[in-house]
Amino acid sequence: MTIALADGGIETALTDRLHQELPEFAAFVLLDTETGRQALRDYYRPFIELADRVGSPLVLDTPTWRANPDWLELLGYGAEASERINVAAVELLREVVAGAAPRVPVTVNGCVGPRFDDYDPARRMTPDQAAAYHAPQVAALAAAGADRVTSVTTLDAAEAIGVVRAAGAAGMPGGVSFTVGADGLLPSGSTLAAAIREVDGAAGIPPLGYLINCAHPAEAARAFDAEPGGGGIDADTAGRIIGFRLNAARHDDDGPGDLPSDFAEGLLALREVAPNAQVFGGCCGTDVPHLAAVARASRP
After folding, report:
1. 122/55 Cα distance (integer angstroms)
2. HSE-up of residue 66 (Cα within 13 Å, Cβ side)
3. Is 112 helix (H, G, I), strand (E, B) or coil?
4. Helices 81-100 and 34-54 meet at what angle, rounded to 10?
5. CA nearest to 277, candidates 51, 36, 32, 3
6. Which residues contact residue 219 at a Cβ distance below 8 angstroms, ignoring those fewer than 6 apart?
7. HSE of 273, CA atoms in CB hemisphere, 13 A
């Protein structure tokens, strides 16, 4: 099966490789200055050039994980900034692709982050509330010409349902990328399989598929065994997984994490439990060397 590469951990790469300061881990603030926009170009370009060299399709996330209302307000932006920022993010990505390697088949994925970083049942949204909350960002990404939107680092099924419903209302394909902890469970305490079934059953138009991000490959693998009774995830549900964007280090580990070759081995091993997975990329602590190793290891 031909895989599609994705980019790496944009926030950690921007701070570590490109020495940018990201308040509240928000990469979108770089869109406000030419220096910041150049840093974003310098982040994305090597991934595009890698995909061009190895002949791989590429999925690139917009730098908009924090570009939703609460985080905009926290960072001193008004509500009216949402459209400008999300549109500018898509436009910059299109510009970099056109300049670096226009032959590469690139999917521009509108990245929609969670409203809250932690799971607190007292402030979680219902699906309808989540759809209303995320609708402005999703609509801006759609209007700017993103190819799809994905709820990224998603903590529970309800917020995922809301983003997928907002995507459908905007006429966009929607995806969901759940995060899991060291125990393989979502922060809500749900198993991966239960969350997938809940979203598929309630989203109206089901998402195009599911990913796992912001977890180490070993933790992502644990999500497939975390079902009640230890029976493992069923084949139909596992078949809904279309990719992984994972961390180099395990939760609570200090340091850089796995070497690129070890990361690639652990990431690609997940094809055994998710046979329909085609998108393989990085999250925290990963950069171009990790994805280059994935490209090498995925060749026959």
Report:
1. 47
2. 19
3. strand
4. 40
5. 3
6. 180, 181, 182, 184, 250, 251
7. 21
Sign of CA dihedral 77, 80, 84, 86: positive
CB 237 within 8 A of CB 197: yes
Nearest to 67 by CA among 33, 34, 26, 15: 26
Whole-number Cα distances in Å, 198 to 128, 159, 194, 207: 14, 11, 6, 11
Of 263, 282, 165, the closest CA to residue 212 belongs to 282
Strand 279-282 and strand 241-246: the pairing is: parallel
**Sign (positive or negative) of CA dihedral 248, 250, 256, 260:** negative
Q: Is 148 helix (H, G, I), strand (E, B) or coil?
A: strand
- CB distance 183 to 215 below 8 Å: no
Average pLDDT per block of 10 residues along the chain, 300 residues long: 92 98 98 98 98 97 97 94 97 96 95 97 96 97 98 98 98 97 96 96 93 98 79 87 98 90 98 97 98 94
For 20, phi then psi, to 5°, come to -95, 150
Contact between 211 and 177 under an 8 Å Cβ cutoff? The reply is yes
Return the amino acid letter for 112: V
Identify the sign of the CA torsion 165, 166, 171, 174. Answer: negative
Q: Count CB-CB contacts under 10 A for residue 228.
A: 8
Reduce the DSSP state of residue 60 to 3 states and report it: strand
Q: Counting Cβ atoms within 10 Å, is residue 19 exposed (0-12), middle (13-18) or buried (19+)?
A: exposed
C-alpha–C-alpha distance, residues 194 and 162, integer Å? 17
Amino acid, single-letter form, for residue 187: P
Using a cut of 0.90, tell me whether the model's pTM lies above it.
Answer: yes
